[in-house]
Structure formats: structure tokens, C-alpha cells
Design a protein that fits this description.
Elements: H1 5-16, E1 20-26, E2 32-37, E3 39-40, E4 43-44, E5 49-51, E6 60-61, E7 75-80, E8 83-86, H2 87-93, E9 97-103
């Protein structure tokens, strides 16, 4: 896929949470990202990835209003003024922001 700073930040969060194995940035005229997905017993670790905020309807939440994904089994990626982080990290830091997507 075409590379961007936002995509690499999202991939960093997914890698730190254990949803992907790794990713590679191929430099060139048009930088490309190659993502290596993680599997467990032959099944993909990512069962569902939903976009929450979109250009036509941005979803902003305060730290106390960010809901846990599937009772804490999943993760929401939140764009804050301190960078992209998980919903748990945003609540712990006490910062809110734009909820980009949820992963389960």
C-alpha cells in the first residue's frame, strides 16, 4: 500500500499490541508499505477492523468517554495531541482525541 506517516504510526500501534508481526517501508519514488500479518493456529489474529472516524464525520472523545472495545479484548486507536495511542494508553494519560478505528 502507499506509505504515509499516519499509516506507519497506526502500524506501530498494531505491532506493539501484537496484531501484526512487522512491516517494511520500501523507499523509492512512491514509498510503499508491506505488512506481515500475524496468525495463531492458522487463523488471523485480526478478526475485525472497523473505521470509526471518517472525513465526513469525525468522532472525538474525551479520555473518560473512550469506550473499551469488546470489554477490553480489542483496542481502539486514538489520535491525540501526544500522538497515536491505544484507548487504554489514552485513558491512562488522561487525554482524549479522535477515535480512528477499532481492532478486534
Amino acid at each position: 500500500m502507499p506509505a504515509s506517516k499516519a499509516k506507519t504510526a497506526i502500524l506501530d500501534v498494531l505491532r506493539s499490541e501484537g496484531y501484526i508481526d512487522s512491516y517494511q517501508l520500501d523507499e523509492g519514488v512512491k514509498p510503499q508499505l508491506t505488512v506481515k500479518l500475524r496468525y495463531h493456529n492458522g487463523a488471523p489474529v485480526i478478526e475485525e477492523l472497523k473505521r470509526v472516524s471518517r472525513p465526513g464525520l469525525r468522532i472525538y472523545r474525551q479520555a473518560s468517554e473512550i469506550p473499551p472495545v469488546r470489554d477490553g479484548l480489542g483496542v481502539a486507536i486514538v489520535s491525540t495531541n501526544k500522538g497515536l495511542m491505544t484507548d487504554r494508553a489514552a485513558r491512562a494519560a488522561g487525554v482524549g482525541g479522535e477515535v480512528l478505528c477499532t481492532v478486534f
